[in-house]
C-alpha cells in the first residue's frame, strides 16, 4: 500500500466514527489540516478529537464531520483558497498561512514580539485583535471563532549545532511560506527556505534543507527526528493556531445549528489551549529518547537582530499598526 492510500484510509477511519449513527444528518463538514494524524502530538488531530463530541452535543448530532489530516486535500495555501471558496469547510492551521491573503496577520509572526501564548491571547482579545479577525472575514471569507495556540513555540530543528547567528550562516532552514516568517529566519542568520509542510521530510533527507523551524510536538508527530537530531530552543515565534471556517459553510448550516457549531469550535480551542503546554514538555522529553539533543542559545542576540523588523513591518503594512501597539500594551498580564 503506498503512502497516499495509507493516509486516505487513516482519514476515513477518523471520519467514520463521527458519521456512525447519524446517517441522515443534514450537514457534514469537511475538515482539513496539514498536521499529521497523531492523537497525542498533532495539534490538528488533538483539536479535532476535542471538537467532535462538543459538536455532537451542541447540535444534537445534526452536524457531522469528515477529517482529512496529512495534506490529503492539498498543501496549506491551496486549502486556504478552498476555504475561501467554501469547498473545504474548516481548516486547522496557524495564522501564518493566511498572511498571503491578509498581510496584516503577519504581525503575529514577528519574531520575539510575544512573551508566550498567554500574551498572544491577551493581544488578540483587544479591539485591535477583534478588528483583525473582521478583516480576515472581509478579505478571505474565513472566520476565526477563537484564537488558539500551537503546541509550543517555534524553535530550530537542525542537522548542525549553533548558539548564535554566526552558527546559522549559509545554513538552509525551512520556514513557512510567509514573508514575515521568512524575513525573521533570515534576520536570525539562516538562509531562509520557504517550503510546504508536506515537503519537509524529503527535503531533509535529500539535503535540500539543513533544518526547519517548528514546535516540538509537530516535529515528533511528523518523525522529522529521523533526519535531524538537534533541537535548539530559539523560541522565536509564538504563532496562533485556529480553526478557520468558511463563511459559505456558516451560511449553509441551518440557523438552528450555527450557534452550536461556533460554540463547539470555541470550546474545543479553549480546551486545546489548556492542554498544549504540558504536551510541549512531553514531546521534548520523547524527542530526547529518539536521540535528539535539546540545546540552548543566546536568545537576546537573536531578538536584537529581529526586533527592528517590527516597525518596518507596520510601515509597509499600516493596517497592522494598532495590533502591534496592542501587543506591546498587553505584555504584562
Structure description:
This protein is α/β, with parallel strands linked by helices and 333 residues long. It folds into two domains: 3-151 and 240-276, Bacterial extracellular solute-binding protein, family 7 (D-Maltodextrin-Binding Protein, domain 2), CATH 3.40.190; 154-238 and 284-329, 3-Layer(aba) Sandwich (D-Maltodextrin-Binding Protein, domain 2). The protein contains 13 helices and eleven strands. It has helices at residues 3-19, 43-59, 76-85, 117-124, 127-140, 179-187, 200-206, 216-221, 247-252, 255-289, 299-306, 308-316, 321-329, and strands at residues 27-33, 63-68, 90-94, 142-143, 154-158, 172-175, 191-194, 211-214, 230-237, 241-246, 293-295. The strands form two sheets. The protein has a six-stranded mixed sheet with strand order 7-6-8-5-9-11. α2 (43-59) packs antiparallel against α10 and α4 (117-124) packs across α13. The N and C termini lie far apart (52 Å). Residues 1-25 have low confidence and may be disordered.
Number of strands: 11
What is the beta-strand fraction?
A: 15-25%
Q: How are helices and strands ordered from N to C?
A: HEHEHEHHEEEHEHEHEEHHEHHH
Q: For the record, what CATH class of the largest domain applies? A: Alpha Beta
User: What is the C-alpha radius of gyration, as a whole number of Å?
Assistant: 19 Å
Figure out the total of helices: 13
Q: Which second-level CATH architecture of the largest domain applies?
A: 3-Layer(aba) Sandwich
The largest pleated sheet is described as: 6 strands, mixed
What is the CATH topology assignment of the largest domain? D-Maltodextrin-Binding Protein, domain 2
User: How much helicity do the residues have?
Assistant: 40-55%
